Amino acid sequence: CLALNKFHYFVINYYVLMHHRNEPECIDRIVHEKFQNVHHTVSATEKYLVGVESRTGGVESMLKVGSGGVYFVGIWGMGGVGKTTVARKIFDNISNQFQGSCFLANVREESKKHGIKHLQKTLLSRILNEKSLRVASFYEGADMLKGKFCLRKVLIVFDDVDDNHQLEYLVGKHDWFGDGSRIVTTTRNADLLRCHDELYSVPELAKCEALELFSWHAFQKRTPDKEFLKLSKSVVDYAKGLPLALTVLGSFLYKRGITEWGSALDRLKDTGYEEIVKQLSN
């Protein structure tokens, strides 16, 4: 949701230009329409995970689940490419094979808002199933993580890590975790993953995958309506295989007419792929 909110700024810019409305009004309308359009997808989430299985399989083979030792695997790629989706799918697939598991989402944002100590406490509480833990400082928190987890087989996903401070006091080192543990880190910066055992770069979607994902959101089916096929392919070309861009644009164009599609495509041409990337990278 966090990433979707950031990409909304790109859509808002388009909406302001298209309808000559002020930005606050556009924000309210887009958010309302976005949730209204996406609401029907909740019960059919699996349909929208286009291309995820192959990417998930690549990472799972790196994790060597079932073997001994402690493995750190890093998943990296640009904003909107699907790192979190892949990591979440893996977590759902294998978390029942561990003594404790935690998907720690939005580390970058949560760290800025609440600090490392808050994230350490959250992690401890979820793995140990204890709510009354006290952490005096992030130094103590790091010691607690090592002390509590070193004899446990755990699966932890640290989603959207963006600095070394988080790695040092939250993600930790191999000797923090018990035999058989698996640690997954997602990030946009591959340089942060130098101490990980394996790295997986999430590829952008192939054109056929991109068109299918876009179609699920724009038409609620695998392929576009015939009269929209050419326009759909043009929109997909501008999204450059980024699942987040395809999801937001597809949802935005859902139930809109050809004239509105044409106007949207004109605005996409004016805005350009670089602006899409810029908004996703903020």
Automatic annotation (TrEMBL):
GO terms for biological process: defense response. Keywords: Leucine-rich repeat. Residues 67-222 form the NB-ARC domain. It holds the Pfam family NB-ARC. Transmembrane segments: none annotated. The keyword DNA-binding does not apply. One of its GO terms (molecular function) is ADP binding. This is NBS-coding resistance gene protein. It comes from Nicotiana tabacum. The lineage of its organism: Eukaryota, Viridiplantae, Streptophyta, Embryophyta, Tracheophyta.
